[in-house]
Amino acid sequence: MYHVVAFMVVAVWGSTFISTKLLLLGGLSAAQIFTLRFVIAYVLLLAFCLYKGIRWVADTWLDELLMAALGLTGGTLYFLTENSAMNYTTTTNTSLIVSLSPLVASFLISIFYQSQRLSRLQVLGSLIAAAGVVVVVLNGHFVLHLSPRGDALAFSAALCWGFYSLLMIPAGQRYDTLFVTRKVFFYGLLFMIPYFLWQPGLGIDRIEAQPHLLWQLLFLGCVASMLCFVAWNWVLKKLGAVIATNYVYFNPVTTIVFAWLILSEQITVYFLLGTLLILVGMYLADRRVSGKTV
What is the secondary structure of 178-229 as a DSSP string? Predict the structure, then answer.
């Protein structure tokens, strides 16, 4: 069940490309989209937590700082660097680099947690899955346009997600999933305040002028943020950060499937080959040795 939930979350996140694209075309900035979707998610989750009587603060100040770090890495910095990268480099470059974040996460986790280091077979599986991502994203067009600033921002997004996965290990061991997720939304929004002091305005006027954009925001806030972040943090807790994060390899696959269904984009042989490599790599990366994950 945990694997099914992980795949469903990544499938939803893969579909958010379309909603985000429509909002960008509607005149909203990447920062405004992130902030509005997190506000919606936080308000809904806060109401539920008040109803359930879930705690307000962590046990210690160090744990509260841990929650702040989760909001900064998995919220503010991740979304700002990923979306800003597309202003300086191609969507292909951004998608390719960010989709390789499981490699970054596995590397960071193996440094700090010896018990979660990958076996040779699992390393091979991760590399095969990463190769599948490359094949899917490039789609037969093996020409990359290097842009140091944009590519660095995309890699920063992958690095942020890697640190988020790393920090979720102690957070998930000590606290309830709903509590951690609410803290991620809260601190993600809190760290956006300096940005809006520099670039004021949430773009509410554009939404009022284009009411159809509200439905895209509600999808991003209610489903892709609130429900998916709760489910993802739960999966990280149950499967372990390394195995769960490997499902991010499916992100470009689900994006292309939704583009095929909604935008009538063509499915190519490179997509099928890349998907097969990802499936084989995921199988090997999830292999267990002597009854437990190495």
Answer: HHHHHHHHHHHHHTTHHHHHHS----HHHHHH-THHHHHHHIIIIIIIIIHH
CB 200 within 8 A of CB 85: no
CA distance 281 to 293: 16
Q: Do residues 102 and 245 make contact, with C-beta atoms less than 8 angstroms apart?
A: yes
- Residue closest to 242 by CA, chosen among 110, 121, 75: 110
pLDDT digits (tens, 9 = 90+) for 253-294: 777 777 677 666 677 787 788 888 888 887 777 765 334 443
d(CA 163, CA 152) in angstroms, rounded, equals 16
Q: Which residue blocks in the chain are alpha helix, DSSP H?
A: 2-25, 30-52, 61-71, 78-85, 91-99, 101-112, 120-138, 148-174, 177-190, 193-198, 204-209, 212-218, 228-239, 241-245, 251-263, 269-285
The whole-number pLDDT of residue 199 equals 83
Residue 280, CB-side half-sphere exposure with 13 Å CA sphere = 12
Report the distance separating Cα 86 and Cα 56, nearest Å.
Answer: 37
Label residue 23 exposed, middle or buried (CB < 10 Å: 0-12, 13-18, 19+): buried
Q: Give the HSE-up count for residue 268: Cα atoms under 13 Å, Cβ half-sphere.
A: 12
The segments of the chain whose pLDDT lies below 70 read: 89-93, 116, 118, 137-146, 259, 262-265, 287-294
Chain mean position to CA 169: 16
pLDDT confidence of residue 265: 63
pLDDT at 35: 92
Residue position matching structure tokens 């979660």: 116
Which value, to the nearest 10 degrees, does the dihedral of the CA atoms of residues 59, 61, 63, 65 take?
A: 150
